[in-house]
Structure formats: structure tokens, C-alpha cells
Specification:
about 210 residues; mainly beta; Ribosomal Protein L25, Chain P; RNA Polymerase Alpha Subunit, Chain A, domain 2; 6-stranded mixed beta barrel; 4-stranded mixed sheet
């Protein structure tokens, strides 16, 4: 993954009120941590962060920030908080990364292709949406495309079927199902009045009394 660039300032004011005022002026509160350094409260330009997300399919992005007082620092956007109703950006967690140290990151899974089973009337079940991988920052995939075009009804793709090359290790359970195609549900037949037809009652002969 190629790192993007953005400017970041240190901030001295923390807390809910300070963060709210910051967002009103077009800035986004965040925190930087990692590589044996104490967490540092920072602020970023909201528009610049929105542009980052607009140009990427995932919110897991490597960024070369220009940190006030330190210069160039490589970070990973680790956690992005959105407002639960408006979707507005609320806060960012940025993890410092080193080029020679591996990362463990949840990466999004994107299904591509139309399964053969769906063409035959089946239903596609997207079970797993992310996988945990470990790799160097330069080898981190933004997303993993999963080709489901050959899935038939009753078949499934597992984590063990994913091939990411020898530079990216998959840490998720190899037996976990990523996606599958199930048979369509059979609806009960209805009579002319729209009522579900009842199963015929089976009447057994009452045993004769001796």
C-alpha cells in the first residue's frame, strides 16, 4: 500500500467540549500512539481526511504525516469514529509504523463476480467481511478481492482459499467461511384465497376394543 500525505498539528486542549469546538472550525481530533511513544493528542484538517477516504475503498490507510515539531512520521489510520446518525467524522486513531516492523491489521474483503449458483437461482451469503493479516507496511493490501464467480449452490469459499502471496500472512481461522451460495427458500403453496395450504390430516383407525 502506497502511503498518502497529510499535515498534522499537536493539540493541547482535550475533552468533549474542545473536540466539539475543533470540529466546528473544520478540524478533526485524533491521537497518535505506538513504537514505544506516549499517546499524543493531535488535530487534522477534516477536509484532507475526507479526501483520503474518498480516494480509497477502505479506511485502513497508510499515511505519511507531517507532524508539527517532528517532521515526517508514517502512521496507519487504525480506528475511525463516525457520528452514529449523521456519519460525520468524529475522531481518528493513528498508529505509528516502522518500515521494518510487521503490522497486524483487519483488512476488508470485497466480493467480485456473479456466482454460478446465483445465476441458477441461489442466494449469495457474504459471511466474513474482514480478515486479520500480518505484513510489513509496504505490503499491506487496502482490500482483498474475493472472486466468487465459480461458486455453485451449496458451495462456499473459506479463508484457506484466499491467496495473498508470501509477503502477507493470514491470521484468521483458516476454516472460517468467507462466502457461500445457498439454495433458495421454498415457500409453502397457497390456495386460491391466499391461505397457506394445510398439510392433510392423517387419520388412523381406532383400534377395536376387545
Amino acid at each position: 500500500m502506497e502511503a498518502q500525505q497529510i499535515s498534522v498539528k499537536k493539540r493541547s486542549l482535550e475533552g468533549t467540549s474542545a473536540s466539539r469546538r475543533m470540529r466546528c472550525t473544520g478540524s478533526l481530533p485524533g491521537v497518535i500512539y505506538g513504537i514505544d511513544s506516549n499517546p499524543m493528542a493531535v488535530e487534522l484538517e477534516t477536509h484532507a481526511v475526507e479526501q483520503l477516504f474518498h480516494n480509497h475503498a477502505s479506511e485502513t490507510i497508510l499515511v505519511d504525516i507531517n507532524l508539527e515539531g517532528e517532521g515526517a512520521v508514517s502512521v496507519l489510520l487504525k480506528e475511525v469514529q463516525h457520528h452514529p446518525v449523521s456519519g460525520e467524522l468524529m475522531h481518528l486513531d493513528l498508529q505509528r509504523v516502522a518500515a521494518n516492523q510487521t503490522l497486524q491489521v483487519e483488512v476488508s474483503l470485497e466480493l467480485v463476480g456473479e456466482p454460478e449458483g446465483v445465476k441458477a437461482g441461489g442466494l449469495l451469503d457474504h459471511v466474513m467481511h474482514t480478515i486479520l493479516v500480518e505484513c510489513l507496511p509496504a505490503d499491506l493490501p487496502e482490500t482483498v478481492n474475493v472472486d466468487v464467480s465459480e461458486l455453485e449452490i451449496g458451495s462456499a469459499l473459506h479463508v484457506s482459499d484466499l491467496k495473498l502471496g508470501n509477503k502477507v500472512a493470514i491470521l484468521s481461522d483458516a476454516d472460517a467461511v468467507v462466502a457461500g451460495v445457498s439454495a433458495p427458500k421454498v415457500e409453502q403453496e397457497e390456495d386460491e384465497d391466499g391461505d397457506v395450504a394445510a398439510e392433510p390430516e392423517v387419520i388412523t383407525e381406532k383400534p377395536s376394543e376387545e
